[in-house]
C-alpha cells in the first residue's frame, strides 16, 4: 500500500503519503542531465536554474508524481486536482509545500540558506537611500541520504530484472554479493586461514583414536595437528574501480537521454560497494573537453555540456587515481557513446576535431590504453551507440588491454555493468 488513511485521522493529507515512493517518482527530476535544457551546461545563463525556478520545478515535479495516482486515495486526488494550477489552487499548493517540508525533515533534501540582497544604504552621491524590499531566494539541494536511497532503488530494480527476487548476501556463484561460500573441507596446512570445520575435525580425531585401539574413544578427545580440517571458501579479491562517464554533447543528442541512466548506474554501483564490498573503492571521473574526478555526492547535479570527447585525459586521471590504490584488482569502467574527438596538448591547450578518428587523437588515446595495460589496469567499455567508428575504436581498446566491450542501450546498461562487476568478484580456490 502506498497510502494509509484511518477514519478518525485528523492530520494533514501530506502525512499520508509514502515519502520513499514519492522520492522514487521524483528520481528523474532529481537526476536530470540537462536533456531538456538549451544551455548545455552554461548553468549561470540558464534562467531555469535560478533558485526560484528550481523550487517551482520541484513543485511541478511533485504535482506530476501526485497526478500519477496511488499516493493518495482517489476521491481525495479528484478534489485536489479539480484545478491543477498551483498558483490558483491554494489547497494543492499547501499540500505540496507540506511535502517539501517533510522531505526536508526526513533528510532527503536540504534547504540552503536564502540568498538575501540587502537594501542599498547609500546612493552613489553619498545620500542615504530608502530601505528597499529584500530579495529572498529559497533553494534546495538533494542530500547524501537521497542519493543513497536512489542508488538502493536502482540497484534493487536492476537485480530484480536479472531474475532475482532480492539483492544482498547470496551464497550462490551466479550472483556473488560478498559472502564466502563454503566448499568441501581439507586438511589444515601451515599458512591456511584457521577457519575450522569443527564437525569434520572431531570426526577425524575420533576415527584416528578408534583406529589406534578398540573401544569407544575417550572424552575429551585428544585432537592432534593431523585432525584439523578447514573450510575451503571462495576467495574474494578487493577491487578498485574508476567509473569514467562521458558527459559530452552527444550523450543527449538524437532524441535520447543517455547520461541520466549512466548516473543511475553509478549510484547503484556505489550503493552495492559500500553495503556489500567494504574493501572495494569506487571513484567517478567525468571526461569531456578535459577530465576531472568528482565526488559521488555531486554526481546527481552533473549535466552534459557543449563538449567534445577527450577520452585520453579521462584515462590519465583514472590512472592517477588507481595508482594510489593497493588492491588485488584495478579496473576502469568506461561509459561512452562517442569516439575520441579531443586531446589535451603538452602546453595545456585542447585540440579538437568534431569528425572523430583524427589520427593524432586516436594514436595518443591508444598509447594511454597501452599504459593502462602495462600498469595492470583492466578497461571494460560500455558503448551506448553502435556507429562504425566507435566500434572500431573500442575494438582496438579491448585488443590492447584485453578487456571487454559491451554494446548496450540506456535501458540495459545497468544490467550489463552490474553483472560484469559481480562475476569478477569471486574465484574459487581448489
Secondary-structure map with pairings?
Blueprint: H1 19-25, H2 27-30, H3 51-67, H4 74-80, H5 90-105, E1 109-117, E2 135-142, H6 144-161, E3 182-187, H7 198-212, E4 229-236, E5 239-246, H8 259-276, E6 281-287, E7 291-294, H9 311-322, E8 329-336, E9 342-344, E10 350-352, H10 359-374, E11 377-383, H11 388-401, E12 404-407, H12 413-423, E13 426-428
Parallel strand pairs: 5-6, 5-8, 8-11, 11-12
Antiparallel strand pairs: 1-2, 3-4, 4-13, 6-7, 9-10
Helix pairs in contact: 6-8, 8-12, 9-10, 10-11
Keywords:
430 residues; alpha/beta; Rossmann fold; six-stranded mixed beta sheet; three-stranded antiparallel beta sheet; 12 helices; 13 strands
Description:
- By secondary structure, this protein is α/β, with parallel strands linked by helices.
- It folds into 3 domains: 13-119 and 129-142, no CATH class; 149-172 and 236-428, Rossmann fold, CATH 3.40.50.410; 189-227, no CATH class.
- It is built from 12 helices and 13 strands.
- It has a 6-stranded mixed β-sheet, with helices on both faces. The protein has a 3-stranded antiparallel β-sheet with strand order 3-4-13.
- Helix 6 packs across helix 8, helix 9 (311-322) packs parallel to helix 10 (359-374) and helix 10 (359-374) packs parallel to helix 11.
Structural shape: flat
- The CATH superfamily label of the largest domain reads von Willebrand factor, type A domain
In the CATH scheme, what's the topology name of the largest domain?
A: Rossmann fold
In quaternary terms, these chains amount to: single chain
Domain module count = 3
The number of strands is 13
User: What is the N-to-C order of secondary-structure elements (H for helix, E for strand)?
Assistant: HHHHHEEHEHEEHEEHEEEHEHEHE
Spatial strand arrangement across the major sheet: 7-6-5-8-11-12
